[in-house]
């Protein structure tokens, strides 16, 4: 029966004629075991309501007292956001949010079946290399159901027109374009979580010590996604390849996003009235409900 199930995954639903013993599960292709294991830990990625509430309250009081730890946050430091390049108060607030998000990302990563066998040093390299792509992918996927809007914290949406007054039009434009591709491809939740793991396990990340081990883990995730798309989207044989083509686009979007973020945080670029609304929006995109 296990062999028959694997054949059914390759050939798609309805490959076998129904007989008296045929069950409904035959009509619905199975989920690859690895993909289901990834889905089982997806809840660790998301904030629950109490966590969002605590984060919102403590975020307003992060203040200058948190400035000492600003340079220690690996996500921000790796992106070139440091006390020397940014306003101290704004950096302290961003660091506070990033610390919480880093905690959630690490908890999710450490529970992934493919991540556990990777060395700690390489785990850190992978996280620093992919955190922005993971957050942007998550944010864009949440916006699939709301065309023309990027979903930010608190369930609010931001349109391209609205983004102009925040100075974020180029970023939002790229994110909306990426979201349109996800919508066109009808990316479902299993494909989304598989893409996140594939993005995380990038074997060409700088300073990896065991790149081959990371590459082998990524190939397992790729195989699971390919099996899933072949079984669940038999009428779209090119879907797997199109999903992978979105990854370079995601990386380019993040590179641009980080550059805009650093410019926004630079005190030299701060307007007379301050950039509070833009910066608050940047923090909401980082924190999000995703």
Automatic annotation (TrEMBL):
Q: Quote the CDD domains the UniProt record gives.
A: NR_LBD_F2 (cd06930)
Give the subcellular location: Nucleus
This protein's GO CC annotations? nucleus
Q: What is its main location?
A: nucleus
Q: Which PROSITE patterns match?
A: NR_LBD
- A single Gene Ontology molecular function, please? DNA binding
UniProt keyword annotations, A-Z: Receptor, Transcription, Transcription regulation
Q: Which residues form the signal peptide?
A: none
Annotated Pfam families: Hormone_recep
Per the record, which residues fall in region Disordered?
Answer: 1-25
Concerning InterPro entries, the annotation shows: NHR-like_dom_sf, NR5-like, Nucl_hrmn_rcpt_lig-bd, Nuclear_hrmn_rcpt
The NR LBD domain is annotated at 30-283
Per the record, the domain of life is Eukaryota
From the Swiss-Prot or TrEMBL record, give the protein name.
Nuclear hormone receptor FTZ-F1 beta
């Amino acid at each position: 029966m296990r062999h028959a199930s694997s054949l059914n995954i390759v050939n798609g639903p309805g490959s076998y004629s129904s007989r008296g013993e045929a069950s409904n599960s035959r009509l619905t292709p199975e989920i690859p075991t690895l993909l289901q294991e990834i889905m089982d830990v997806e809840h660790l990625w998301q904030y629950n309501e109490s966590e969002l509430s605590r984060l919102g309250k403590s975020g307003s009081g992060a203040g200058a007292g948190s400035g000492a730890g600003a340079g220690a946050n690996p996500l921000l430091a790796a992106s070139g956001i440091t006390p020397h390049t940014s306003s101290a108060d704004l950096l302290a607030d961003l660091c506070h949010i990033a610390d919480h998000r880093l905690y959630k990302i690490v908890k999710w990563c450490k529970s992934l079946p493919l991540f556990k066998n990777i060395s700690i040093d390489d785990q850190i390299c992978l996280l620093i290399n992919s955190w922005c792509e993971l957050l942007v992918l998550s944010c864009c996927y949440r916006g699939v159901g709301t065309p023309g809007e990027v979903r930010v914290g608190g369930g609010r949406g931001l349109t391209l027109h609205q983004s102009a007054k925040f100075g974020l039009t180029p970023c939002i434009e790229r994110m909306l374009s990426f979201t349109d591709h996800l919508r066109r491809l009808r990316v479902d939740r299993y494909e989304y979580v598989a893409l996140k793991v594939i993005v995380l396990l990038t074997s060409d990340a700088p300073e990896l010590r065991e790149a081959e081990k990371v590459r082998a883990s990524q190939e397992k995730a790729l195989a699971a996604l390919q099996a899933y798309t072949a079984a669940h989207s038999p009428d779209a044989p090119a879907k797997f390849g199109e999903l992978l083509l979105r990854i370079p686009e995601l990386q380019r979007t993040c590179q641009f996003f980080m550059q805009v973020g650093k410019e926004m945080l630079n005190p030299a670029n701060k307007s007379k009235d301050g950039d509070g609304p833009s910066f608050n929006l940047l923090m909401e995109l980082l924190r999000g409900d995703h």
